[in-house]
Amino acid sequence: MDINNFVSKFSEQFDDTDASEFSADTKFKNLEEWSSILALSIIAMADEEYEKEVTGEDIRNSETIQDLFDILSKK
User: Fold this and answer.
1) Which residue of 15, 21, 28, 52 shows the fewest CB atoms closer than 10 Å?
2) Which of 57, 74, 72, 68 is nearest to 24 (CA)?
3) What is the domain range of residue 45?
4) For residue 19, is it within any domain?
């Protein structure tokens, strides 16, 4: 699992936010498009792409995409 691939897969969940706005340091909950539906999409993406379970608590405890990646990497 690599951070650049994770950022790319993460950004694919967003329809209205340009992929260039995403980096490991992106504070994803501050994005205008962020919603609980997108949180569910991120959970599904992690399961499908990485076979790892992301919980709502994991998302709540993450400020940046890097934070979420670090949590996932430890699972």
Assistant:
1) 15
2) 68
3) 1-12+39-75
4) no
The model carries a pTM of 0.92
33 belongs to a structural domain: no
- C-alpha to C-alpha distance for 75 and 58, rounded to whole angstroms: 11
What total number of domains does the chain contain? 1
Task: Report pLDDT digits (tens) over 5-63.
Answer: 999 999 999 999 999 999 999 999 999 999 999 999 999 999 999 999 999 999 999 99
Rounded Cα distance, 26 and 51, in Å: 23
Q: What are the CB-based long-range contacts (under 8 Å, 24+) for 24-29?
A: 24/64, 24/65, 24/66, 24/69, 25/64, 25/65, 25/66, 26/64, 26/65, 27/63, 27/64, 28/62, 28/64, 28/65, 28/68, 29/63
